[in-house]
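Researcher: Go.
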Amino acid sequence: MSGEIAGIILAGGLSRRMGGGDKTLLALGGRSLLDHVVARLAPQVGPLALSANGDPARFGATGLPVLADIVEGYAGPLAGILTGLEWAAANTTSAALVTAAGDTPFLPANLVARLSDAAARRPGSIAVASSGGKRHPTFALWPLGQRQALRHFLVDEDNRRVSAFIERHDFVEVEFPLLAGDGAELDPFFNINIADDLAVAERLLQSIEP
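Model: Structure:
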C-alpha cells in the first residue's frame, strides 16, 4: 500500500535554538540529518518531496522536489503540510500524504505502514503518531480531501497549530514503542533542537540497529 501514499519531509523550521540556518543539513554520523530522514522515509512511500522555503539548491543533493509554502508569511509546519497536500493532489495518484519532520533521524521504519493501517480502519480520518504517551502531530497521515479545510483553518482562521487542526477532525492515534539504545530507552521521534541533542544522537547512532 505504501506506493499509494505520498510523503513530505518538513524542513522549513527557523532553527532558532540552533542559531538559525538549516539544522537538517547538520552532520550526524557522516551524513546530514536530512539524509538520515530520507533514508528512513523514502522506502515507505511513493512520491516524496521536501518542504522548505528559500533557495532550493541547498537541498539539491537529495534529488527531491523542494516545495516552498503556498501561503504567504512563515506559517510554520501547517503551511508545509498544506503545501504537501496540494502538491500530492496535483502531481501524484496518491490518496493520502504522510508528513515527517526533517530533524528526527530515528523515525520508525514502519511509520507509514502503521499509520495507513490505522487510517484504513477509520476511513477519512487523520492518523497521527505518538510515543511515550506524547502525540507527534507532524508525523501523521493526511487524507488529501482535508486540504480545503486545512487551507480555511490556516488562512481564513489564521490558526497555525497542527494539533488544533487534528483535534477538530476525526483522528486516530498510533502509539509507537520506545527503542533501546545507549543503555536507555529512546523515543523514535527524538528530534534535534540544540547542539547537545546532536551529541546525544551521535552516541545513539552507534547503539541502535538501523
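Model: The chain is about 30% helix and 25% strand.
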